[in-house]
Amino acid sequence: MTATAALLAFTLAAAILTITPGLDNALVLRTAAVEGGRRALMAGLGISAGCLLWGAIAALGLGSLLAVSTLAYDVLRVCAAIYLFYLGAKLLWRTLPGRKSAGVVAAAGMSAGRAPAASYAAPRNTSATGWFLRGCLTNALNPKVGVFYITFLPQFIPAGTDVLSFSLLLSAVHAMVGMAWFALLVAATRPLARWLSRPAVMTGLDRMTGAVFIAFGLRLALEKR
Question: Is the pTM above the cut of 0.70?
Answer without folding.
Answer: yes
